[in-house]
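User: Second chain of the day. Same drill as before.
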Amino acid sequence: MNKPFCCAKSLVANQKVCDAPQSRALQRGKKAAQKAFVFSLEAALSLILLSGFLLMQMPQEKKDLHELLVFQKENDLLKIWAKQQKFAPEEMQKDFEFAFPKAGGEIFLDGKILQIGNKTQKAIASEIYFFSSEGGETRISIKVFE
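Assistant: Same format as last time:
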C-alpha cells in the first residue's frame, strides 16, 4: 500500500518536491485535525444545549395562600359566633364586613340567608353546627364570594 517515492522538480522555485512519508503523515494529520474540529464543535454545541436545558428554570407552581386565609377567617368568625351564642344578623353582618371588607358573601343561619355584597361564581364556604345546652341545634354557614 505504500506509494513509491516520487521526486519532481518544481518549475516555480526550482526545488525538488517529494511525496515522502513525512508529507503523507502531514496530510493525514490535517484530515484528522479537521475531523477533530468538527467533533469538538459538535460536542461544544451539545454541551451548550444541555447546560441551557439544565439551567432553564422550571415554572414553579404559584402558591396562592389567599384561599387559606379566607378559610381561616371564616372559621374564626364561626368559632366566635358559636362562643358568644348571639346570632343577631346585624352583628353577624358587621363582623363579616369587618373580616372581608372588599368581598361579598352569604351568611346562612337556620334557614335564613343574609346576602352581603355581590354574588359571583367562585366562593369559599365554611359551615358549623352549634348545639346549645338546652338541646337546640343551630346551623351557621358562611360563603365568601371572590
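The CA atoms of residues 73 and 99 lie 7 Å apart.

User: Great, on to the next one.
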